[in-house]
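We close this part of the discussion by returning to an individual protein. In the encoding step, the backbone of a single protein was reduced to a row of integers, each denoting a local shape. The sequence in question and its structure tokens are set out directly beneath this paragraph.
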Amino acid sequence: IFTIVCSFFFTKKLLNNPEFIYAYLPTSDREENKVKNIITQGKNMVVRYGVSYILIILITGVISVVGYLILGVPYPLVLGLITAFLDLLPVLGVSVAYVPLAIYYFFQGNYTVPIGLGILWIIVAVGRNIWEPKILSSSLDINPVITIGAIFIGLKMAGVLGMFFLIFMAVGFKVLQTVGVLDTFQPSEVKKKKVPDRKAKK
């Protein structure tokens, strides 16, 4: 009951005045502006992160729908949508949709569809490893190597939670760099020393 009541009043206050929390922070005006900037940049990057993954599953869905249409699988649009959302599952991904369909048609005596689904799986699996890092790195302004490392190291360490944890950690690090809290680690330009021209010998 206490949690429900407090959540209600907090949400009501937050909707009426989203910036009320800044009045209770023991910070100066300059630090308060930096906090606001951090929150704004964080929200923007989280939104871009969500949009990026929507684009990724959309690509998978379109490829799957086209593949189902070519193979003559019934309900291609519905199956394409299901396949797209299953693509969010790491390691398994679209296999959760393709494998049962392939097994079903194999026992029905139709060997063309399982072979086609196998080819489709290779296209999506290989393509996903190509376009996912590029989309995430371009939308979040993070180096593709960092994105790939966060995905695969996170999966190796703690599965799905590890992947999302490392990606959000990379995003948070980028936000703090953007607002100037952390150093960008970019090498400073070395000032070129002006070398006096040698006088031509007579």
